[in-house]
Write a structure and sequence with these properties.
The chain is built from eleven helices and eleven strands. The chain is of the alpha/beta class. The chain has a single domain, classed as TIM Barrel (Alpha-Beta Barrel), CATH 3.20.20.30. Helix 3 links the parallel strand 3 and strand 4. The longest helix has 17 residues. The model has no long low-confidence stretch (mean pLDDT 94).
């Protein structure tokens, strides 16, 4: 078995918001069970209620000690990047250097772009500028920037992040533009809803874009988000996951479950994870597709029956 790093995602529940204590219990359970990272998603407006990710991770940071904290992914074009730089530096301070900033362009919900006053057609260029601004503000004592959307000169943002030179920035997305951005600007790539073969091919394109930009890719992080449910049978796992994902995405998933998810017995899930490891993934971020009544039990099963196979 490949030696993998495992994370887990705190995913929105199918119906309503959980009690805040459930959120903290999930994070503490993930840390106690040995998961390496905890991830949260982001939308300003969505079909179900979502907590703002940096605020949520700040709460988690004060109740955990070891587990890394990641955004999977923050929609950077919807936010002013200097404010993001300040918030992430603060989160890195509170967590004593545990932040991984995953960023993406979004676009699935045009209403949130309208509400934030951002034309969707600008989201890629805003993201590229934003990434550069973040790194300059985190690493320079007199940072300046002149771009299409933002301009400033001789700025010293304090405090700097704990991590040196700065927190890693992972790029999310499956489009060719996202793969190019990952190769040119990212410290890693984090994806979801691709097959192992698709993952392998995307990593090859990222490497080509990185080489064209003259970047060394030896330490580049290759991460895959995998919807997962362990149950006595595949049919039981498929039923639960179809209901969960169909509600969250407002899309029928019946014919996509076997292709994109790890479902069924521990052996079924281990086999799917192994295929992604063989395709080049080194970070696996599991998303337990269940509600609050069974989320901690599912975490325990994943840690004991799936993650342990790769340790």
């Amino acid at each position: 078995m490949a030696d993998l790093t495992f994370g887990v995602t705190f995913h929105p529940y199918p119906v309503g918001m959980p009690d805040p204590d459930v959120v903290i219990e999930f994070a503490q359970a993930a840390e106690e069970l040995g998961f390496d990272s905890l991830w949260v998603g982001d939308h300003i407006l969505w079909r179900t209620p979502l907590l703002e990710p940096l605020t949520l991770l700040a709460a988690v940071a004060t109740r955990t000690k070891r587990i890394r904290l990641g955004t999977g992914v923050l929609l950077l074009p919807l936010r002013q990047p200097t404010v993001v730089a300040k918030m992430v530096a603060t989160l890195d301070y509170l967590s004593r250097g545990r932040v991984i900033l995953g960023v993406g362009v979004g676009g699935e919900n045009p209403k949130e772009f309208e509400a934030c006053g951002v034309p969707p057609g600008e989201r890629g260029r805003r993201t590229d500028e934003g990434i550069e601004i973040l790194r300059r503000l985190w690493t320079e004592s007199s940072a300046s920037f002149a771009g299409q959307f933002w301009r400033f000169s001789e700025v010293d943002l304090q405090p700097k992040p704990v991590q040196q030179p700065c927190p890693p920035v992972w790029i999310g997305g499956r489009s060719e533009a996202a793969l190019r951005r990952a190769g040119r600007l990212g410290d890693g790539w984090i994806d979801y809803f691709v097959t192992p073969q698709g993952f392998r091919e995307s990593m090859a394109r990222i490497a080509a874009h990185g080489a064209a930009a003259g970047r060394a890719m030896d330490s580049f992080a290759a991460a895959h988000v995998l919807m997962t449910y362990v149950a006595p049978t595949k049919d039981e796992a498929k039923r639960a996951t179809e209901q969960y994902l169909s509600h969250y995405y407002d899309h029928a998933f019946r014919f996509l479950l076997a292709r994109y998810c790890a479902l069924g017995t521990p052996e079924d899930c281990i086999a799917k994870v192994q295929r992604f490891a063989e395709a080049g993934a080194r970070y696996i971020v599991l998303v337990p597709t269940c509600g609050p009544e069974s989320i901690v039990a599912q975490l325990e099963t994943l840690a004991r029956e799936v993650v342990a196979a790769f340790r």
